[in-house]
Design goal:
By secondary structure, the chain is mainly alpha-helical. The chain has a domain of about 80 residues. About 60% of the residues lie in helices and about 5% in strands. It contains five helices and two strands. It has a two-stranded antiparallel ribbon. A hairpin with a 3-residue loop joins strand 1 and strand 2. Helix 2 packs antiparallel against helix 3.
């Protein structure tokens, strides 16, 4: 499942952590991991400045390896415990439920933006459509730019809507 535009709420649900917090966490760990050997080496009074520099340079491959292993283990855990189970559940859902899941993700993004100090870039009524090989493009939920009940002439003219029929063409048909 790939988000179309904003994705922080979706990634938070799928990965178990907000992407911004995740980035800050990784940057902080990276700074910590690279600063510790420097601090330890610099505190050894018996070493000359050249020796300290040589030890700092020699420590870089081991630090990089350790950080990469840390990232791999976290990614593996995230995939096993968060992303994988949700993606497997989504893959097994019927199309109608997938449309609901997509709408819920958009609603969550709206709520998150409304509660934050960021500019709201997601908002308003949500249109939901499904595109499948079998059915093609199908509206699940669609807003109109005007209230249909207040415009019976439009409805009769374009959709042959009648009171006894009370449905639009193709509505409820598969």
């Amino acid at each position: 499942m790939l988000p179309f535009a904003q994705h922080s709420s979706i990634k938070t649900i799928l990965e178990g952590i907000h992407p911004g917090f995740n980035d800050e966490l990784y940057n902080s760990v990276l700074k910590l991991v690279f600063s510790l050997p420097k601090d330890v080496i610099d505190s050894i009074k018996e070493l000359s400045d050249d020796q300290k520099e040589a030890y700092r340079i020699d420590s870089i491959p081991a630090i990089s390896k350790a950080f990469n292993e840390f990232q791999s283990k976290i990614h593996e855990l995230r995939t096993m415990e968060y992303t994988g189970p949700i993606e497997r559940a989504i893959a097994m859902m019927p199309i109608g439920e997938l449309a609901t899941v997509a709408e819920v993700f958009i609603n969550l993004e709206q709520i998150q933006q409304r509660m934050s100090l960021d500019t709201e870039t997601v908002g308003g009524p949500i249109d939901v459509a499904v595109i499948s090989k079998h059915d093609g493009f199908v509206w699940i939920k669609r807003k109109h730019y005007f209230d249909i009940r207040l415009n019976p002439g439009f409805v009769q003219k374009y959709y042959n809507y009648t009171e006894d029929n009370s449905s639009f063409p193709n509505e409820g048909q598969s």
